[in-house]
Design goal:
2 copies of one chain form a homodimer. In chain A, 35% of the residues lie in helices and 16% in strands. Chain A has 820 residues and is an alpha/beta fold. In chain A, strands 11-22-21-20-17-12-13 form a 7-stranded mixed beta sheet, with helices on both faces. In chain A, strands 2-3-1-4-5-6 form a 6-stranded parallel beta sheet, with helices on both faces. In chain A, strand 23 and strand 24 form a beta hairpin. Chains A, B: One of its GO terms (biological process) is biotin biosynthetic process.
Chain lengths: 820, 820
């Protein structure tokens, strides 16, 4: 099993990748010149060359790139190869070192080979490695993926050989842009000094003005001689020409300085950050430079982070500088389609190029309209007809609350002086803006905040957990009087079969409890403006998995009980999709929506529809902030009047910014497409489909997780350190035992987090680890919607191993626990 | 004077621009084939051809493109031209129709010529226009700007002719990406069916999978014959081949459908929006489809919007479908570097490609670090050392308030039960999230919002206005007792010379008023946690221009009077940059900061530094939401403790998202560069520099506006309808007389807005208008930091004309007034 690939960066080795603006632009000549000159200038160092993809048709080609080891600059006599190049689609020949592998390797295996070669080079004291690509930047590699996409994970700094021929200005700029938008750092542009077209003049100005990138030009090389020997001699002379060497020295000097600047910047960034950044949700007295993760780039599910130096000795020059860190918090639950997904980049850039940002109040543009339609359709909720755009989940829930409160106040004819609250669940979290905070019950995370004032009532609820291998609805001691002691189920599917459970009367105890609670509140004169729930999982509240039957029952009771909230002039029906009843029902789907739990909307698990729903985070696949608050027409209409001040007076400057809308449109459609194509079939097949002993087709309900059911059940059986575990969609949560008691003040999960953070050395692929966040005694690991089966397997192994290790020793005592 | 250019879209005319993946890829052959086939298929229509930039070296070249009028498909016999192509940097020949213009025209003049030609074509019943570009997508046009950038304002849908040669896969994809990231819609990719390389196979799959764009391939044309006559005959036969015509028919069919789909989408979008969008800050009972602006794209300072159909008759087929709409609200005050600025697009795409979004709590990445350092340095405020990232101005001010309140509470040893307020100015606005709303005094815009509770005290203040040609500090009746009746100054510079005014004792009446107000509040037992100001201009509060001396005095009094706020254990000094004194001073620079008023920070006008400052909107040049709250080290330290719950518990999922940080870094550096380069010298020279009669070098103070001083003074002399006007930086505000009284319920500005909205026909450049927002009786027009002198002149003329017209008739009566 291949471990994830760390980017190419060593202190000992300056690695540069050479891309060409086109085929036949002189990549090999430039690379040869640079390699030869490097060898002259850094006499004691080794200079290496790698051409991972060769496009030559036969023996001769491979021979010419007969690699390297102790003969770094051997055979660079001419550029014969260019004449042998063939198309990449019809002829996918390739080589690494002298080995020709067949069949065509996977991209991962291919890149691992490249990295392995670089690792060998890095082990040999100081040196250089020049990696020459084949053809143009987008010429396909072995698997058919274009090289600009293929090499992203290696992310070596780059030289671009420009095109000095007719049309070459265009080719060079376009090739550069293709690299740039994939996050490559092009450090220098090189091209021949053709005096007919003088592209170098134009390009030198262009790249300096626009990017501050230097362009170096080299005299045109001699015409090819038909005699190989004479040709080699002529090239030899060319390479040794004073002007050629001078250009090469200048370029190499720049690359040398850039390499050391890059390392200094990486080494110093955490210290600078600890001096000048004020971190969100972080007690900075507990976070020094050593605790700050320096991220160089990110790709797929992995960050590339500055690897910690080995304890006790100075940073070793040949140790990899970067390691792959699995983003197990999905960057605060935002990631869905992988970091730096080229499709999302192109979507963002298209919208930026077409609109930038444009005014949205009383205006409309295509991506905002298309996204609104896509979301309304995808929700399959007959109640929803309107989309309100804002910037993030917190502001989007504030919008939802403004909608709900107004609707309830008007319906029940309350004055503006009435104090209205939110009905919710204990541990609810809706964001950190003050209005969103006020929707959460008082607790240690808001009680010290000066303007916080919890406005509402929050019910207790039964939860779902796999304990000792058994899926059960768990009831806290305080609720045992109402709900009994909980119950075990054969499978998670059975717990989600809320209709069957309802048919068997399981919901009645919930109904009684909820109704009596509401009656008590009514008797106390409490007034409510909305029921607000995070469907299925309360994320920041500690990854609590709520019994879906409880939430379903809560919604139903509220809708059937308008009399418990106020006196309306018109009767309403709980089932009428055209009118809200009881209270406006708000689902905060910011964390759980849009395939996080495996479905477009988690409301489909409950079989009840909200009147208002809030969507963010995964909405943009994990790229930029955007939020949508969806609402019903009947709530929308309550804001209509001839008076401007009756409107929903909420707006953000960047409301419905086109980049966000376009990226969200692309993301949502991509995830819908994945569902249609069965992209998660492999995960669904791993123990989740159907109840035990029954064929899958007999089940209406399908719940599943990226994480294998067997893993969850195995984890839950580690009764030494584990209370229980659950997995749903891409989320895996492990509730750990903690002698100091669970909750936010707990430290139980920190030891496990540390062990995951230590990770593995990873051999030639470079070190890797897991960057996770904990919530009190809960450690969670979140996959993206793109995580592969192989990644999951690897992570599962590390998890089991780390927990077992932890069970054998005491957990570390640290006093701070991040919330998310 | 050229009027702004409307994009190319007519109902009668299908315009397609043909770009090439490289030079010599067959653009002319494809275009010829399409034009010939179109003529066969749509016999009654006219088919036009335009090659705005020709790269031919002599007579022959121009002759071959001897344009068109009634002979649209004449002379398309061969592709001789290709052999005559030359480099674009050394040979900038070009032609439009048969005219060769010299000297090289400006980009604007050049595009206007192109549009004029298309306008002629559109006037001739239904038809087609194919516009062929020269060379590759980034081959330079006449002025040296590359064609992909040059043609953005025309934004015709596009055909890309791919490269079928060796390396052509790469060339085609890169060229496509260069178009895509500039917002072009590439509707079809065309290339030759070369059977050696088979690029068409790879590309067909690639474009279908990634973009859903069809790729059509055409048999390779005959080799060129040396005899022109035989060559022409051979090509004639080629064009008439069944397979060639079939391909052309398919492509044309697609283009035809796309054109009509695009029109339908534009025509129906406002209706759809009125059914499904819930607009921010908008009373939708007053906004029907006709009031909704449909934006097709945006470039520079202009939207391209669906032009209203002429009243009374059906939409005329030859009328331009789009018009240029000057974005006079700068899209809710966000725009600085123009819509769809390619530099910002590339910055966004680079960050997307390098990181996507990555976790920020306890992590750091290069753009976040570099932006933090750039802002801290740019502010030149010795008090600031920390940067907290959030999503928008509203959340950023909430963060600032959380910082301020905590610092004050700990300093003055108040319990969490103490009700703390904000000290501010009347009409203050800090955003629409509930915490930000609570920082504003009660008024018609928040009094109906259920959870709103104004928390603070808001002082009245004197304002600055040019009235009847005279710059003066204006005092409202209620303040006359305290401040007298105001005062006139020779120039705006004199008003801003706060040190001189202070030296002459002008501030004493302010000091007395502020001190006595604070003493009264203290006597009432009121407690405050921060002084929070929008420096210089209260935007949403009605474009009120506050006397800078008043704000300066307010800050100074607060800092010198800790005894009026609480009892601190340690004495503090008002002038010590290492410690806040009295109250933490927060400057909300969201609207006025980052060059909006001509300077990096408006605090430099006041000569006092805040302890906390908030920056958004222009921060990203107008592309994506991002906010920074800058704070002093001494406030930061008040959150340090061993206890996690003492931290600033605020965080956003997309905190410091790399796209936002990278774009902001690019924007801020670009604006700093403009300042250094003197990019606004032209504006500063127009009456703003120095006091009258005194040489500029004698003035420490330099205030200026993009809008000429003469315009402001002229406007202020229109005493028929105008109370007064002011301009500063890019903002021009006109306070209008309104018999119904001023303020938010006013309608005075609506008539003027309507007249600006009607705009002008613009002739061959297409219609243009001004899209403005009003604030009660105030109409404002905001330039970007890129607006040209010519644009300002044009807009100034339209403004004067529209106001004069308004003075001659009654203003319309509409009951709703947008806030921003």
């Amino acid at each position: 099993m291949k471990s994830p690939l760390a980017s190419l960066l060593w202190r000992s080795l300056r690695v540069y990748q050479v891309f060409g603006a086109n085929t036949d632009v002189g990549k090999t000549i430039f690379t040869t010149l640079l390699a030869r000159t490097a060898k002259k200038q850094w006499k004691d160092e080794h200079v290496n060359f790698l051409k991972p993809v060769s496009t030559g048709a036969g023996e001769e080609a491979d021979d010419r790139y007969d690699l390297i080891e102790n003969h770094p600059v051997k055979v660079f006599g001419s550029c014969l190869m260019i004449n042998h190049e063939q198309t990449y689609s019809s002829l996918r020949t390739w080589c690494i070192s002298q080995h020709t592998l067949s069949p065509i390797p996977s991209d991962e295996a291919f890149l691992a080979k490249c990295r392995a070669f670089a690792t060998q080079c890095a082990a040999k004291d100081n040196g250089w490695l020049f990696m020459e690509t084949a053809g143009g930047v987008h010429s396909p590699g072995p698997s058919g993926k274009t090289q600009a996409d293929l090499y992203i994970p290696l992310r070596a700094p780059t030289l671009l050989v420009g095109d000095s021929r007719l049309g070459g200005i265009s080719q060079t700029i376009s090739a550069f842009e293709s690299l740039r938008i994939r996050g490559y750092d092009v450090e220098s542009v090189l091209l021949f000094k053709d005096n007919t077209y003088e592209n170098y003049r134009y390009l030198a100005e262009y790249f300096k003005d626009n990017y501050g990138i230097p362009v170096s030009s080299l005299s045109v090389p001699p015409e090819r001689d038909e005699s190989p020997q004479r040709d080699e001699e002529a090239m030899q002379k060319y390479y040794e020409r004073k002007d050629c060497e001078e250009v090469a020295r200048q370029v190499l000097g720049l690359l040398h300085v850039n390499h050391s600047n890059r390392l200094s910047a990486l080494d110093s960034m955490a210290t600078k950050a600890s001096q000048h950044i004020w971190y969100p949700f972080t007690q900075q007295s507990l976070v020094g430079p050593k605790e700050i993760m320096t991220i160089d780039s990110a790709h797929g599910d992995y960050f590339q982070t500055l690897a910690p130096s080995a304890p006790g000795n100075n940073t070793s020059a040949e140790a990899p500088v970067l390691r792959s860190s699995f983003d197990a918090s999905a960057s605060w639950w935002t990631q869905g389609l992988g970091h730096s997904n080229p499709k999302l980049t192109l979507a963002a850039a298209y919208a930026a190029g077409r609109y930038g940002h444009v005014m949205f109040a009383s205006a409309i543009h295509q991506p905002a309209m298309a996204l609104a339609e896509t979301l309304l359709k995808g929700m399959q909720n007959p109640r929803l007809s309107r989309v309100f755009y804002s910037d993030n989940g917190s502001t989007g829930t504030e919008v939802a609350v403004k909608m709900g409160l107004r609707a309830a106040r008007l319906r029940y004819d309350w004055g503006t002086d009435q104090k209205l609250g939110i009905l919710g669940l204990k541990g609810a979290y809706h964001g950190d803006t003050m209005g969103a905070m006020d929707c959460a019950e008082p607790g240690i995370y808001n009680e010290k905040i000066e303007w916080y004032e919890g406005k509402g009532y929050w019910l207790d609820y039964p939860t779902v957990l796999c304990r000792n291998g058994e899926w059960s609805v768990t009831v806290a001691d305080s609720l045992k009087e109402s709900f009994g002691s909980g119950r075990a189920y054969a499978t998670l599917n059975d717990i989600f079969d809320v209709e069957a459970r309802e048919a068997s009367g399981e919901h009645v105890i919930y109904e009684d409890y909820i109704t009596s609670t509401l009656e008590t509140l009514r008797a106390q004169g409490r007034k409510f403006g909305a029921l607000m729930l995070e469907p299925i999982v309360l994320g920041a509240g500690g990854m609590e998995f709520v019994d879906p039957l409880f939430q379903r029952t809560l919604v139903n009771v509220v809708r059937r009980s308008p009399h418990l909230f106020g006196t309306a002039t018109q009767p309403t029906s709980a089932d009428d999709p055209n009118e809200w009843s009881g209270l406006p029902v708000i689902f905060d789907e910011v964390f759980t929506g849009l395939y996080r739990l495996g479905r477009f909307t988690p409301s489909s698990f409950l079989g009840v529809h909200p009147d208002i729903s809030v969507h963010a985070k995964l909405l943009t696949g994990g790229l930029v902030p955007l939020c949508t608050t969806l609402a019903s027409e009947n709530i929308f209409k309550m804001f209509l009047s001839p008076d401007k001040t009756d409107a929903l007076l909420h707006g953000h400057s960047y409301t419905a910014h086109p980049i966000g809308c376009q990226v969200a449109l692309e993301s949502v459609k991509e995830m819908q497409g994945m569902e249609e194509r069965g992209a998660w079939d492999w995960a669904q097949a791993r123990g989740w489909k159907g109840s035990e002993g029954q064929p899958p087709e007999q089940h209406k309900v399908d719940v599943w997780s990226t994480w294998p059911r067997e893993l969850v059940e195995s984890l839950s059986r580690l009764t030494d350190g584990v209370i229980g575990a659950w997995a749903l969609g891409s989320v895996l949560a492990i509730h750990l035992k903690d002698s100091a008691g669970s909750g936010y003040s707990s430290n139980a999960a920190l030891g496990l987090r540390e062990r995951l953070n230590a990770g593995r050395t990873g051999g030639e692929s470079g070190p890797w680890n897991v960057h996770s966040r904990v919530l009190g005694n809960v450690l969670y690991v979140m996959a993206s919607q793109m995580t592969s089966e192989e990644s999951v397997k690897q992570l599962s192994e590390l998890l089991m191993e780390s927990i077992n290790k932890g069970a054998r020793r005491q957990t570390d005592a640290l006093s701070a626990v991040p919330r998310r």
